[in-house]
Design brief:
CATH superfamily of chain B: paralog of FGE (formylglycine-generating enzyme)
Number of helices of chain B: 8
CATH class of chain B: Alpha Beta
Distance between the termini of chain A: 68 Å
Number of domains of chain A: 2
Structural class of chain A: alpha/beta
CATH class of the largest domain in chain A: Mainly Beta
Shape of chain B: globular
Radius of gyration of chain A: 26 Å
Low-confidence stretches of chain B: 9-20, 199-220
CATH architecture of chain B: Alpha-Beta Complex
Strand order of the largest sheet of chain B: 1-4-7
Mean pLDDT of chain B: 82
Mean pLDDT of chain A: 88
CATH topology of the largest domain in chain A: Immunoglobulin-like
Order of helices and strands of chain B: HEEEEHHHHHEHHEE
Structural class of chain B: alpha+beta
Oligomer: heterodimer
Number of strands of chain B: 7
Number of strands of chain A: 23
Largest interface: A-B, 41 and 39 residues
Distance between the termini of chain B: 46 Å
Strand content of chain A: 25-35%
Largest sheet of chain B: 3 strands, antiparallel
Number of helices of chain A: 10
Low-confidence stretches of chain A: 1-19, 349-354
């Protein structure tokens, strides 16, 4: 009854006209045994395939609709393949017979399906996998063409299903395998269209108008602002070769993928493993497409992943980081050797003063309160509000706060390390996340003294020494 | 003794309630705009005759009394052909509601067969897709808000964007639409009589073209208003169903053709 009710999107890569000998032999590859696919969440990638033969691979993937963080203080209801955005990474070998089980969680509001660009067949599996909430569908396909492919939900209205997070990557390894590298990571770009502007706090619903205008508020790697930066940066050691499996879920934008401070030694453009470009600075990743990039990291430091359509990186979140540790290679990169005043008129060259401007330190309590207010306004006010009253159930109050006044050391610790999970403040339970603040001991002493001496709090003073003591614990 | 008194009072109240507020309303004849360009002329509208529609979705309480009178629709009796294994899943047993199934919340995990049998037991039917869409196009203030009022469309879309959580709330708590009908939106999905009409026409070549219009990127090419995402979603949802499916956020209400 359910026949071909799916025409592919123009971008779809299935049903390639390629009907070469390779395809023929892969169709006839002998299937030996069966195994359950290991699936991973970004940025991890399942282990390389060491099998020398085709097998039956069983893939179990669940679609679910979940409220998660899109940025600091910003929530979004994501529609997911496997509970995260992007969806689980799937790794199979050329010639494998993939038995795909799509399970739609009973709490889903929507039916879902999957169109894998690695599939040769109608809808890329979309028709066969169309699944009501609380049901499962099964179909199978032969992985005929090696490459890195996008998969996505294709249920009407397809744009909204993709815009809400329903995409991921499937790698079909060539039968001879891929060259060994030291590290492999999964990075997927996509954009989000929200009712509020970038950074507007609270739960943000999908904005259809902005999606139609192709004017996103967020352009991110791996489903959220800062998903791969700071503590979640991708680690590597100097001298290692890194392979990034880069996908672009779109739904609209084409990515100009670039790593600041690296040159891609190899790029398999558009995810085609039979094509290799060398020495590439920036590679295009189409919406609903991919690229595989490889590079050796020669010297330590932070390398920034960006969409080099650069306003997306600066203002919409398209930033990620690779943190390379290990020995520096001064032969490859020296670092800054000298900084001098430049006199275009050619007068005597002078060295600039080596010491940075001394930091202003509060000399008395009045100054501590004054400087503290500045720190508060810059770092705390957005959530805890101008008068420290907090916001509804999201951000606890700092005014007349029993939790705050009870323990000075704890308050310092919260600023230093952040706080996650349920706490009770003035009889109300708050269950959210406060990120650690990157402030100096002096700044923390000032801001806490300011808070403790305002809005009906206990009037305690906090000194930089107090902060230092907690920091060093 | 005291219990008896309460029961007695409740009965009186129930009678008063039933007589003072009719449980279904009459809709005037009119035209509705289908998702697909199926009309021959340029009006892009389909005529809907006058009909009656229930004000509320059928509740757990309503359905308990139905299965008590029609034991073949009890969980333990119903053949899987007519209702999937999760039929009335939130209920504690055949006739007892659980914590997740409050009396006045819409009944869910219900198959098309069971919904249809319920309506027939009341001398009614399930509404057709045309009837349902016609009634649901109305906001509290406008008959055709779904076609012309962006803020109404947006509100519906936001509800569709969020997953379901149980227990569901009571029916009739949101504003009624202009006809006096509650909960067509922002409550549960609802079965319609011809839920699968997007897929079958009885003519195979016809099926193929219809099918292509229903889904994916090309879905937009056949539709009257490619921007009407909310309607797309309902059509997509309905076509993911089979008649014995039971889903955690799918309920129903009844309608009645005029004699």
């Amino acid at each position: 009854m359910k026949k071909l009710f799916c025409l592919m999107l123009g971008l779809s890569m299935v049903g390639c006209t390629q009907s070469n000998q390779n395809n023929q032999s892969q169709k006839e590859a002998v299937i030996k045994g069966e195994e359950v696919a290991i699936l991973t969440d970004a940025p991890q990638v399942p282990p390389a395939i060491t099998r020398k033969h085709a097998t039956k691979v069983i893939v179990n993937l669940e679609t679910s609709e979940l409220k998660m963080s899109l940025a600091d203080g910003v929530e979004y209801t994501f529609w997911t393949f496997g509970g995260k955005v992007p969806g689980k990474f799937i790794r199979v070998r050329e010639g494998d017979l993939v038995e795909f089980h799509l399970h739609n969680h009973p709490d889903s509001k929507m039916p879902h399906n999957i169109d894998l660009h690695a599939v040769t067949g109608p809808g890329g599996g979309a028709v066969s996998s169309f699944t009501a909430p609380g049901h499962s569908s099964t179909f199978s396909f032969r992985a005929l063409n090696p490459g890195l492919y996008v998969y996505h939900c294709a249920t009407a209205p397809v744009g909204m299903h993709i815009a809400n997070g329903m995409y991921g990557l499937i790698l079909v390894e060539p039968k001879e395998g891929l060259p060994k590298v030291d590290r492999e990571y999964y990075v997927m770009q996509s954009e989000f269209y929200t009712k509020g502007a970038f950074g507007d706090q609270g739960h943000q619903p999908f904005s259809m108008e902005k999606a139609l205008e192709e004017n996103p508020d967020y352009v991110v790697f791996n489903g959220a602002v800062d998903a791969i930066s700071g503590e979640k940066s991708l680690p590597a050691q100097t001298g290692e070769t890194i392979r990034l499996y880069v996908g672009n879920g779109g739904p609209n934008l084409i990515s100009s993928f670039h790593v600041i401070g690296e040159i891609f030694d190899k790029v398999h453009p558009e995810g085609s493993l039979s094509t290799t470009n060398k020495d590439v600075q920036t590679t295009l990743v189409p919406a609903g497409g991919s690229a595989v990039v490889e590079f050796e990291v020669d010297t330590s430091g932070t390398y920034i992943l960006v969409d080099h359509s650069i306003f997306r990186a600066f203002n919409k979140g398209a930033l990620g980081m690779i943190e390379v540790t290990g020995k520096d290679d001064k032969n490859v990169f020296s670092g800054k050797l000298e900084d001098k005043v430049y006199h275009p008129e050619g007068s005597t060259i002078q060295n600039i003063d080596e010491d940075p401007a001394p930091k202003v330190v509060a000399q008395n309590r009045a100054e501590r309160l004054e400087f503290g207010k500045r720190i508060y306004d810059q770092n705390c006010k957005a959530c805890h509000q101008a008068e420290g009253k907090g916001l509804a159930t999201a951000f606890p109050p700092l005014a007349s706060s029993d939790y705050l006044n009870a323990d000075k050391q704890r308050a310092i610790k919260v600023i230093l390390e952040g706080l996650e999970g349920p706490i009770t403040v003035n009889g109300k339970v708050f269950d959210s996340v406060m990120p650690a603040q990157r402030l100096t001991d002096e700044d923390i002493a000032n801001v806490l003294t300011y808070v403790y001496n305002n809005w009906g709090n206990s009037g305690q003073n906090v000194s930089p020494e107090d902060v230092k003591a907690v920091r060093e614990k | 003794m005291r219990n008896l008194l309460i029961v007695f009072l409740l009965m009186i109240w129930g009678v008063c309630f039933a007589t003072s507020t009719p449980l279904s309303v009459m809709l005037p004849p009119g035209q509705y705009r289908p998702l697909l360009k199926v009309t021959e002329d340029s009006s892009k509208r389909i005529k809907v005759e006058s009909f009656k529609m229930d004000k509320y979705p059928v509740t757990n309480k309503d359905f308990v009394s139905f299965v008590k009178n029609n034991p073949k629709w009890k969980k333990s009796n119903v053949p899987s052909l007519f209702a999937g294994s999760e039929y009335l899943k939130l209920w504690k047993d055949d006739v007892t509601l659980g914590k997740k199934a409050p009396e006045d919340a819409p009944v869910v995990f219900i198959s098309w067969f069971a919904a249809k049998a319920y309506c027939e037991s009341k001398g009614k039917t399930l509404p057709t897709e045309a009837q349902w869409e016609y009634a649901a196009a109305a906001s509290p203030t406008k008959k055709f808000a779904a076609y012309e009022d962006a803020s109404f469309q947006k509100k519906i879309l936001e509800w569709y964007g969020n997953p379901t959580s149980h227990p569901l709330g009571a029916v009739g708590k949101n504003d009624a639409n202009i006809y006096g009908i509650y909960d067509l939106h922002e409550r549960v999905w609802e079965w319609v009589l011809d839920f699968n009409n997007g897929l079958v026409t009885g003519e195979s070549r016809g099926d193929r073209t219809l099918d292509q219009k229903m889904f994916c990127g090309s879905g937009a090419s056949g539709s009257v208003d490619p921007g009407d995402y909310a309607t797309f979603m309902r059509y997509a949802f309905r076509s993911s169903l089979k008649a014995n499916y039971t889903v955690s956020n799918l309920g129903f209400r009844c309608a009645k053709e005029l004699e």
